[in-house]
Design goal:
This protein is an alpha/beta fold. Helices cover 39% and strands 21% of the residues. It is built from four helices and five strands, in the order βαβαβαβαβ. The protein has helices at 16-30, 59-80, 95-105, 127-135; strands at 5-9, 33-41, 86-92, 110-114, 139-143. The protein has a five-stranded parallel β-sheet with strand order 3-2-1-4-5, sandwiched between helices. β4 (110-114), α4 (127-135) and β5 (139-143) form a beta-alpha-beta unit. The longest helix is centred in the middle third of the chain and has 22 residues, at 59-80. The protein binds adenosine monophosphate (AMP). The site of adenosine monophosphate has 20 residues, from β2, β4 and α4.
Length: 145
């Protein structure tokens, strides 16, 4: 069995390098295409009581989060020595939808995530890894962190 397209779900935590190195190794071994994806979750801040901050927010994702994410993803790829990988920053309602949507659309056959990142230290498996595992159309490699 050989993988054709490895999708590395990248956050910018300290462990991203370790997870990325594993993704790179697997992709190299299988001579597979390698893509990096970072999901910017839709901002939906509510202060409760029905009052939403949305009128002042529309610029934020484009101007700040997206630009910074693209730069950070490029730097991560550079550190990993995989400048030729495809870099995707996507906006989605959730991490799961962003990662799985891209995996389906681009026919990834292996998704590589860290077992934990920022959101799941107390859990057996981080929330993103868990969510991805439950809906994935392909294999998932959870790199032990
Ligand atoms: P966490 O859900 O924070 O425990 O993260 C576990 C793993 O999910 C990380 O090691 C990454 O591989 C992936 N991940 C977390 N946040 C993102 C994100 N914004 N975009 C893409 N992948 C992510």
């Amino acid at each position: 069995m050989s993988y054709q397209h490895v999708l590395f779900a990248a956050d910018f935590s300290d462990e991203a390098l370790k997870v990325g190195e594993r993704a790179r190794e697997v992709a190299q071994k299988h001579e597979a295409r390698l893509s990096l994806i970072h999901v910017v979750e839709n901002i939906n801040i509510s202060l409760g009581g029905g009052y939403e901050l949305l009128p002042v927010l529309p610029e934020l994702p484009d101007e700040t989060l997206f630009r910074e994410s693209r730069v950070a993803l490029g730097e991560l790829a550079q550190k990993l020595g995989i400048e030729n990988a495809e870099l995707w920053v996507v906006n989605a309602p959730s991490m799961k939808e962003g990662i799985l949507g891209a995996a389906k659309e681009h026919k990834a056959d292996l998704i590589v995530v860290g077992s934990h990142g920022r959101h799941g230290l107390a859990l057996l498996l981080g929330s993103t890894a868990n969510a991805v595992l439950h809906g994935a159309p392909c294999d998932v490699l959870a790199v032990r962190i």
